[in-house]
Amino acid sequence: MVPISSPDNTSTRLLSLDFFRGATVAAMILVNNPGDWGNIYAPLEHAEWNGCTPTDLIFPFFLFIVGVSIAYAMGSKKTDPSAHNQTILKALKRALILFSLGLFLSLFPKVFTDPAGAFQHVRIPGVLQRIAVVFFISSILFLKNSERNIFRILIILLAVYWALMTFVPVPGVGYANLEKETNLGAWIDRGVLTEAHLWKSAKTWDPEGIFSTIPAIATGLFGVLVGVYLKRKDIDAATKIAWLFSAGCGAVVLGLLWDLQFPINKSLWTSSFVLYTGGLATIILSLCYWIIDVNQYNRFTKPFVVYGVNAITVFFLSGLIPRIFAMIHVKNSTGSEITLQSWLYLPFWSYFSPINASLAWAVTFVLFWLIILWVMHSKKIIIKV
Known about the structure:
This protein is an all-alpha fold. It has 16 helices and two strands. The protein has helices at 15-32, 54-73, 75-78, 84-107, 110-113, 115-120, 127-144, 147-167, 184-193, 213-231, 237-259, 271-294, 302-308, 311-327, 340-351, 354-378; strands spanning 329-331, 337-339. Helix 10 packs parallel to helix 12 (271-294). This is DUF5009 domain-containing protein.
């Protein structure tokens, strides 16, 4: 990765964005792969319901980055209406691939042992599926609308979602509420997808459900607007950073104020959650842009950049490998059969306390993928999805 020669040169890749994306994906792998789900440090867990832990920031940060990337990748196409249809078709193809990869993770490995049962009970929503939907819809809105209209759409999405969730009585319940199983989003997800295709840990609601994808699109549009502003050539870098930092702080404050009436909640992806996380993402990206792209302090970035340029690839494979490990059985020292992952985890039990052993396994998993990605980066292997 060659550092950009000027922070206002929009024809080159933004190194700070790759760094931010890579750090986000590495964090996602860290929290998704503890050695023991029963022993996790509190910051590495999601909030029980309302509230926001560091772990809750990871997914909205990634959707925000998707939005920024859209502004950079499709900026030249936006000014050429004749290229819109082809660009939308490419976006649709990419979205379908992402959605299919997410479904494959939900189906694997049962799809090879019991295909009928696998499809009958496959979870349709998911992380990659939501990324696919947000990417596709945000791409269309970016190509077909001015920045002012995109901002208006973002506000409308947040306002409509808030109004529906807090004022519309839930059928069968009789009143509007924000509880896990009885909120309007859960009712819609159960009605459209049925319990067979929802999150298996709950079955009555899904954290990546249909209805909560509406405000998730707003998170993507938040990133689009930040990306458009960063690309502007008529504004110097210092002004960009000042405005973005101020806007980010303002969004965080608005999110915290809205939290008093519409609680910050990742599973519901509440409007306050969109503003709060979008504001934090804007602050972090503006700081990264100032340090890495403007001041050219970038020697520390490579471990995260190698994650960032193959982000979807490593996320998919990091979800697939533990499933494969769980399929393979080996004998331990007592002759009992255990999964390969449990066998590999045994040394961590010996040298660490349970909670530190769980963390050490997760860190080792992140470093394992870092080595692979570093080799791929050195050989200029970038798998585009």
